[in-house]
Design goal:
One of its GO terms (molecular function) is ATP binding. The chain is an alpha/beta fold. It has helices spanning 4-10, 24-42, 54-67, 86-99, 108-113, 130-140, 155-158, 205-215, 278-287, 292-296, 306-313, and strands at residues 46-49, 75-80, 103-107, 144-146, 163-166, 194-197, 226-233, 236-239, 253-258, 271-272. 34% of the residues lie in helices and 15% in strands.
Length: 316
């Protein structure tokens, strides 16, 4: 009996047999490079959100590839909560200097000091990032803002288009999003509006790690298992520090942990792990049944629709 696969192989059309077939990482890279070049052609003032986390690091690597040997034609933007991990900030600054890039920083602490924002009772500053982010976008007149969001992270992000239109208040309205058939992206926007662009939309966490391994991309050491002083709050291992932890009754202990995602120290949890190498991390991720945000982000557990609510307000 002749099967479709047999016919395809006989005709020399099998993906596996073709010397021109793209691997799944090549296909993802090609799509992302196309998106970066499309934005460069359609917009006047794009910017890349860069936190020093693995997704933004991969985005910058792709942007460098997209325009090499020319320089990346975009600047970077980081929203600094004031409670970022020191090793991640060191990586951010070193990377900016290495590639000769311009970095814009929107500081949550500056807004608190000016009385424009108030500390939350739970101490987390992640929700406070929205106002500094949206005001920086407006003041710098950025019309396209690259983000490292992926559809596999969280259900609200699974709804996102690659080009996500935001209104003059940076708010996301699902009803205004355009269809993206055949990788045709519509960047049209009115004055004051902008478009959030997600080149890694179709990537998974495992894809990101496999790509990092293939490309030999350097990461902050925080992503690999190391001894760290942590304490447990709401089921998560949080880093002890001046940001407000631990409280009375919370005990600090030294554990072998690593981070799957990085953000504000007050709401980003570490996971127990002995993965000290890229291969070990990839094996760990492949076996995990929890998404990185489900496993390590307290701010996403505030309510069933926490991420969607923040996206509507202008969050990443």
């Amino acid at each position: 009996m002749t099967t479709a696969a047999t016919v395809s192989e006989a005709a020399g059309n099998s993906e596996e047999s073709s010397p021109y077939a793209l691997s799944h990482l090549d296909a993802l890279e090609s799509e992302a490079v196309h998106i970066f070049r499309e934005v460069a052609g359609e917009f006047e003032r794009p910017v890349i959100l860069f936190s020093g986390g693995k997704d933004s690091i991969v985005m910058l690597h792709l942007a460098l590839k997209a325009f090499a040997p020319a320089a990346v034609p975009f600047s970077l933007l980081h929203v600094d909560t004031g409670h970022n991990f020191p090793e991640v900030l060191e990586y951010r600054d070193r990377t900016v200097k290495k590639h000769g890039l311009r970095l814009h920083v929107a500081s949550v602490q500056d807004y608190i000091d000016a009385g424009k924002l108030r500390e939350r009772p739970d101490g987390t500053r992640n929700p406070l990032q929205t106002v500094p982010l949206t005001e920086k976008i407006q003041s710098e007149r950025f019309d396209a803002v690259f983000g490292g969001g992926r559809r596999d992270e969280e259900k609200a992000r699974a709804k996102e288009r690659v080009f996500s239109l935001r209104d003059e208040f940076s708010q996301w309205d699902p009803r205004r999003q355009r269809p993206e058939l055949w990788q045709l992206y519509n960047g049209r926007h009115a004055p004051g509006e902008h478009v959030r662009v997600f080149p890694l939309s179709n990537w998974t966490e495992l894809d990101v790690w496999q790509y990092i391994a293939r490309e030999g991309i350097e990461l902050p050491e925080i992503y690999f298992a190391h001894d760290r002083e942590v304490f447990k709050r709401s089921g998560m291992w949080l880093t002890a520090g001046d940001w407000g932890g631990p409280k009375n009754g919370e005990t600090v202990e030294k554990r072998l942990v690593r981070y799957r995602t990085v953000g504000d120290m007050s709401c980003t949890g570490a996971v127990d792990s002995d993965a000290t190498t890229l291969d070990a991390v990839i094996a760990e991720i492949a076996a995990s049944r929890l998404t990185e945000r489900g496993a390590t982000r307290a701010d996403d557990k505030m309510s069933e629709a926490a991420m969607e609510d923040r996206k509507r307000e202008g969050y990443f």
